[in-house]
Specification:
Blueprint: E1 2-12, H1 18-36, E2 39-44, E3 51-60, H2 63-78, E4 83-94
């Protein structure tokens, strides 16, 4: 069994309030959930209205599937025109890792 996660540091465009931030972040989270059927949430920078941290995670039987899904999620986020992807970090672990 393999599990992987990816975390994004995102700069939002012309956002002036936390309410506007949510209107940008929620559709991204919803689209990731819908397209990839993974767990995803806003995980940091909750009080800053121009920054967001989003993370997604999944479990699969082989590493190749985890890598493919994480690649797809990263492409989806990077292609969003209303945000700027500042960084993406990922990890993949096996159930046999120490």
């Amino acid at each position: 069994m393999f599990f992987g996660w990816i975390q994004f540091d995102i700069l939002l465009g012309d956002v002036q309030s936390l309410k506007e931030k949510r209107s940008v972040v929620r559709p991204i989270i919803s689209e990731i959930k819908r397209k990839f059927e993974v767990s995803v949430a806003e995980t940091g920078e909750l009080d800053l209205y121009r920054r967001a941290e989003i993370a997604a995670g999944l479990v699969a039987t082989d590493a190749a599937h985890v890598i493919d899904e994480l690649d797809g999620i990263e492409r989806l986020v990077a292609e969003r025109p209303e945000i700027q992807l500042l960084s993406a970090g990922r990890r993949i672990h096996s159930s046999e890792d120490d």
